[in-house]
Specification:
- By secondary structure, this protein is α/β, with parallel strands linked by helices.
- It is 42% helix and 19% strand.
- The chain contains 6 helices and 5 strands.
- It binds 4'-phosphopantetheine.
Length: 161
């Protein structure tokens, strides 16, 4: 059942070192990891799907068993099509839990063969989120500890428009 392949989906608006940390830790334990840049219909995005995809590709370049892809549809449809039975999500705090539980139950109800793994964010990243980074960047605060130089530049460009 494709036990050595996993997927890590998300919005990545933009990708942070918290995401990169989850990707690296997962990639060490699976033969192949699909990082899928997706749309959450409940969110308003700063970056388009293709802008988010480019930033994710740039930040994850060099991790050799990672495939970066994008899909504008239902997650389980992508997973079924690629025969991926392992899903990875990161958890930071209790506040993430309810949303994750709801999503996990919905995804497993749509795709019962799916197993979902939750990784706790490393403490250095346990409080950062893409939305907090956008807020700090909007007020020209220093975000260099949490995102790559490339993302920092893209954020500056976008927020100055
Ligand atoms: O980084 P996020 O915003 O927490 O990621 C959420 C995402 C994009 C993985 C989720 O919204 C998703 O799977 N979107 C695709 C549409 C879908 O399958 N929705 C059903 C989820 S139960």
């Amino acid at each position: 059942m494709g036990k050595k392949i996993a997927a890590y989906p998300g919005s990545f608006d933009p990708i942070t070192y918290g995401h990169v940390n989850i990707v690296k830790r997962t990639a060490e334990r699976f033969n192949k990891l699909y990082v899928i840049v997706m749309n959450n219909p409940n969110k308003e995005y700063l970056f388009s799907l293709s802008e988010r995809l480019e930033m994710v590709k740039t930040d994850l370049k060099g991790i050799k068993n990672v495939v970066v892809d994008t899909f504008d549809g239902l997650l389980v449809d992508y997973l079924k099509r690629h025969r991926i039975f392992n899903l990875i999500r990161g958890l930071r705090a209790v506040s993430d839990f309810e949303y994750e539980l709801q999503m996990a139950n919905a995804n497993r109800s749509l795709f019962p063969e799916l197993e979902i793994f939750f990784l706790m964010a490393d403490t250095d990243f346990s409080f950062i989120s893409s939305s907090m980074i956008k807020e700090i960047a909007n007020y020209e605060g220093d975000i260099s500890k949490w995102v790559s130089k490339n993302v920092e530049i893209k954020l500056k460009e976008k927020l100055s428009k």
